[in-house]
Amino acid sequence: MSDSPPPPSAPAPAEQSWQTRLRRHPWRALLGVLALAIVVLLLLWDWNWFKGTIERQVEVRTGRRFEIAGNLDVDLGRVPVIRADGLSFANAEWAKQPLMASAQRLEIAVEFWPLLKGDIRIPDIRLIRPRVNLQTDPKHGGNWVFDRAGNGELPVFRRVWIDDGRLQFLDAAGKTDIDLAVASRAAQREDAAPPVEIEGGGRWKNNRFTLEGRAESPLALRDAQRPYRLNLRAAAGATRAHARGELVDPFHLRDFDLQLALAGKNLADLYPLIGIAIPPTPPYALDGRLSRDGVRWHYDRFTGNVGDSDLAGSASVDTGGPRPYLRADLVSKRLDLDDLAGFVGAPPQTGRGESTNPELAAEHARLDASPKLLPATPYRLDKLRAMDADVKLKAARIEAPGWPLDDMQAHLLLENGLLKLDPLNFGVADGDIRSIITMDARRTPIRTRADITARKLTLAKLLPKVKLAEDAVGKVGGRIALAGNGNSIATMLASSDGNVAVGMGQGQISNLLMEFAGLDLAEILKFKLTQDRKIPIRCAFGDFTVADGVMTARALAFDTSDTILVGSGTIDLGEEKLDLLIRPRPKDRSLFALRTPLTVTGSFKHPNARPDFKRLGLRGAVAVALGSIAPPAALLATIELGPGKDAGCAGHVVN
Questions:
Q1: Rounded to whole angstroms, how far apart are CA atoms 586 and 275?
Q2: Cα–Cα distances in Å, from 348 out to 268, 340, 354?
Q3: Is 137 exposed, middle or buried (0-12, 13-18, 19+ CB in 10 A)?
Q4: 284 pLDDT above the threshold of 90
Q5: pLDDT of 244-265, one tens digit each?
Q6: What is the C-alpha separation between 623 and 293, in angstroms, rounded?
Q7: Is 294 exposed, middle or buried (0-12, 13-18, 19+ CB in 10 A)?
Q8: Is 588 exposed, middle or buried (0-12, 13-18, 19+ CB in 10 A)?
Q9: What pLDDT does residue 1 have?
């Protein structure tokens, strides 16, 4: 019997199970080993190895240098978070700043499972201390236009959060430099993108301004079809603006649904801000709807006040031509004429109940201290040539103390420096004054022509401060045709040529007033002791020729059944001097009359009407001399024999 080796011992049960499973499921075992290796790799992995690849890809797509100066890290989880520190993105070569954008840190959350399907979904972005420098240039355009365009669609972003952000915009050619602080705030709804608060300012067309308010998340800007909501307030000097509402495609400013409130101390302050030239006005406040249609901006259905006048209507500005073109249709229920003083180069009134601003108040004080009445403030030729306009204004009621104005209708056309008011109509004293004014600012100085017609003005209402004329009867009409050169109302009239005619037909007036005009003391005493009565007016007329700013009377008369007043003399529009002589010619006999001419002298601001004391003194001396002979004889010097004759009214009455 031979010796044989002992049989091998059987494996342990656990060892047999592991080996069996490894032979039966090799792929599962391989995946387990791979998973373990990945875990070890991730624990030891340095994500900074990808920085160079990312930087090169951005540069290839944009043509700009991109750098991640800090760490690149990834927090794995159901929604991985990528963090990158010290990011910088180069600016265009021509730009002022070396960097277009930078951030202290960028955090991006990426949904993992859609990523496996090639769908990049980024639910959250967080930017810490981001800085964006935008700049535009007439030659190169905007620095946000890249030399190379990337391919493919942008990832889907849901929310962005900005900590301590800053946005700068520079337009050197437009003298605009804006610097804004931007920071996210908690959204009202949990699923909504956080809105941003904006605060800052700078210069807009070289005018300092401030801006503050709230807007939707910047992510909402990319959806050109979804309205972008905002609520912003801006201030430039004394000008205030409040925009609230929605806009569509804000990067192209294609469509708006914004309510815009504007307020300030002077509408003329808008000229350097938006290029719209408006004469000086008192403080204003307007609120309306702002919209845009191509190159035309609309400000519709606005209401508000300018000075002490209410104002409503719609306006638009077309920016597609050689100059901005303003079109407006305005209405006022109650227009204070004083608020339109800036259109003739004069400031509005000051004092109790009057709206003004410090600059206009100072101008009014200077004008009030001046011996001249006519406004001498020159028109701004650059404003008259800077824009075109087609503006209509209707006023249902006019407030003008001392002036019998009822309503107004005006149509202003301004094209390439040629301004025309056609018509400029006022309802006056139950009648109307119709005007056509042309100002040619294409030449220096301005050439102005005025054609004015007055019809059917009630005499009593034309003399509201004359008690004895309150029940006068008659209709007055007139025509003025003047042309002159000058850049202000004063210089225009000082150089003007033309004709001025005014007249009326039959009517009635206080006899006492006429006796005062003729210094008939006996008749004055009689009507004072008894009762005044009306006497017929045959006609009245004034016909002046105007040459080089001087009006010379060709015919001047006021003819009644009792007395005819005949005048002569001149009115100097340049010096604003009056030099008229009114001679009374009574048509009745009077026992005690000191008939003597009336002289009208002084200035437009301080006129003076009084008897010719030299002639009155001579007549009084005769009475004294006769009285020394025999007291009753003194009355002989005052007896009026009534040599007055009727005036030739034909050809002078203006209907």
A1: 63
A2: 14, 8, 8
A3: middle
A4: yes
A5: 987 765 544 455 668 999 999 9
A6: 85
A7: exposed
A8: middle
A9: 43
| Phi, psi dihedrals of residue 23, rounded to the nearest 5° | -75, -35
Threshold 0.85, pTM exceeds: no
Query: For residue 307, what are the contacts with CB-CB under 8 A and spacing of at least 6?
Result: 281, 282, 283, 284, 336, 338, 339, 348, 354, 355, 356
For residue 38 the two structure tokens come to 């990945």
- Single-letter amino acid, residue 458: T
The backbone region for 2, taken as left when phi is positive above 0, alpha when psi lies in -120 to 50, beta otherwise, is beta
For CA atoms 431, 436, 441, 443, the dihedral sign is: negative
558 sits in which H/E element: strand 550-560
Whole-angstrom CA distances from 583 to 519, 525, 568, 600, 607 are 11, 21, 9, 11, 18
φ/ψ (deg, to 5) at 460: -60, -40
pLDDT of residue 380: 84
Do the beta carbons of residue 271 and residue 207 sit within 8 Å?
no
Give residue-wise pLDDT tens across range 581-599: 888 776 655 444 445 677 8
Question: Do 544 and 501 touch, CB atoms closer than 8 A?
Answer: yes
Q: Cα–Cα distance between 58 and 66 in angstroms, integer? A: 6
E strands, 216-294, in order:
228-236, 239-248, 255-264, 284-293
Say which residue the tokens 């605060």 belong to.
199
Predicted local distance difference test score (pLDDT) of residue 262: 94
- CB neighbours of 481 closer than 8 A, spacing ≥ 6? 450, 451, 452, 498, 499
Give the angle subtended at the CA of 569 by the CAs of 566 and 571, to the nearest 5°. Answer: 125
CB atoms within 10 A of CB 82: 17
Q: Which of 398, 443, 436, 452 is nearest to 418 (CA)?
A: 443
- The total number of residues written for the chain in this structure: 655
- 43 — alpha (psi -120 to 50), left (phi > 0) or beta? alpha
Tokens matching residue 336: 């204070």
Strands 325-332 and 72-75: unpaired
Q: What is the DSSP letter of 151?
A: P
Beta-carbon-side half-sphere exposure of residue 545 (alpha carbons within 13 Å): 3
